[in-house]
Specification:
seven-stranded mixed beta sheet, 3 domains, six-stranded mixed beta sheet, FAD/NAD(P)-binding domain, Alpha-Beta Plaits, single chain, alpha/beta
Length: 415
């Protein structure tokens, strides 16, 4: 079907008010103004971000190039006032080894994800974008329009953008009416630990990343957030029992600060939250009059994620395709898919890195790599980039496979 670029007066409905949805809406608003078009934009979001009634399982670590992306592509000031901790680097824990991985002049920022989402949604509303507090309950695709049924309204749109993350209900709607199939996902369990002000100061501002030998936990992390630590684990089927086992691990216990004398914490008292994040690309993530962005498309960094940046970036690219190329499957294939080649081409490298890391971790073979990295700045940088997702995995593999790096690892194995 030949569907041209969205004309003046066209309507874009966006399902989901997270970073991907608001990023797409703000990009549509800015680009339409530059092109002299009047475009109607509606965001459907059933969650209430203001007042922090909803807990987001995302660890909430923002890293480059997101600040620049917001300010230069969307004209949105980065919300530095929401920053809870500036993250200068990571402490990587393997089976028996630990190494400090310092970053560069572009540190990451830890914040509360729900506050960031509320800031982005409020910015969209201030720019005249319509926000509907409702969930989509059904869809109809017709020759000239898309009908979106919501809990309290019905929308007629020219094209619909799926920015619903891994919400199973909304994914099922698209799967019922289109060829879309959601990405495979890993499970995640998150909890918070409030050890007290003195203990938080002693913990510092580095994220502690763990690659445990436990076969069902692919990785874990402890992230400082001003007055508490966010602790998360991920794997194919992680659950509360595995989180308790992770918290009881001697290496994790040694990294966690003891509570201040006025506080008494037991791991059994922690409240756990369950979430998921994609580990593959979705199938048919675009078609006639629909396109997916962020987690819903599976367009994230394999193994590490960097989901907030990917969501905003793919939202911008979807907006550009809608206004400049078209809203047909062919238009999204020619423009949107082509624009995301940086992510798509890196996915095989990320999957390979993930598989290799899991294999080496299970057999305790990451310890020699860490020992070698203590004497090799290049390998240290490769480990930092892998943990922080600051660089593409293709580039990380190139750094790690240099002859002098491999020789250092072999010597560490021999030792």
């Amino acid at each position: 079907m030949e569907l041209d670029a969205l004309p003046s007066g066209g309507h874009v409905a966006i399902i989901g008010g997270g970073p991907g949805g608001t990023g797409c809406a703000l990009a549509l608003h800015k680009l339409a103004a530059q092109m002299g078009r009047s475009v109607q934009i509606t965001i459907l979001e059933g969650k209430q971000f203001s007042g922090e009634h909803h807990y987001n399982q995302c660890a909430g670590v923002i890293s480059p190039p997101l600040p620049e992306l917001l300010e230069t592509r969307l004209d949105v000031p980065f919300p530095n006032h929401l920053s809870q901790t500036v993250i200068p680097g990571y402490v990587l824990h393997t089976g028996r080894e630990t190494i400090v991985l310092d970053g560069d002049e572009h540190p990451s920022i830890a914040l509360r994800r729900i506050q960031f989402d509320e800031y982005m949604l409020r910015t969209a509303r201030e720019r005249g974008i319509t926000i509907r507090a409702a969930r989509a309950v059904d869809l109809e695709f017709h020759t000239g329009r898309v009908v979106i049924y919501a809990e309290n309204t019905t929308l007629d749109a020219d094209v619909v953008v799926g920015a619903f993350g891994l919400d199973e209900g909304t994914a099922a709607l698209f799967a019922r009416h289109t060829a879309y199939r959601p990405p495979d996902a890993l499970s995640s369990v998150v909890t918070k630990y409030h050890p007290g002000a003195d203990s938080m100061a002693a913990f510092g501002s580095y994220i502690h990343a763990f690659l445990p030998v436990q076969p069902r936990i692919e990785f874990g992390a402890v992230t400082p957030k001003k007055n508490h630590l966010t602790i998360n684990i991920a794997g194919r089927d992680v659950d509360a029992t595995l989180m308790q086992a992770f918290l009881a691990d001697p290496q994790v216990r040694a990294a966690l600060p003891s509570p201040d004398k006025s506080r008494q914490h037991k791991t059994a008292d922690f409240q756990f939250f369950k979430g998921r994040f994609p580990r593959s690309k979705a199938r048919n993530y675009y078609g006639d009059r629909y396109v997916m962005v962020g987690d819903a498309a599976g367009l994230v960094r394999a193994f590490k994620g960097k989901g907030i940046t990917s969501a905003v970036l793919t939202g911008i690219r979807a907006a550009e395709t809608i206004l400049q190329t078209g809203i047909s499957q062919q238009a999204f294939n020619d423009s949107y898919r082509a624009a995301n080649q940086d992510i798509l081409r890196d996915l095989p490298y990320g999957r390979a890195m993930r598989s290799l890391t899991i294999l080496l971790s299970r057999f305790g073979l990451l310890d020699p790599v860490v020992r070698a990295a203590r004497h090799d700045p290049g390998l240290q940088r490769a480990l930092f980039d892998a943990v922080s997702a600051h660089a593409p995995y293709k580039e990380i593999a190139r750094k790690a496979l240099q002859p002098q790096v491999l020789w250092g690892v072999l010597r560490a194995f021999a030792g």
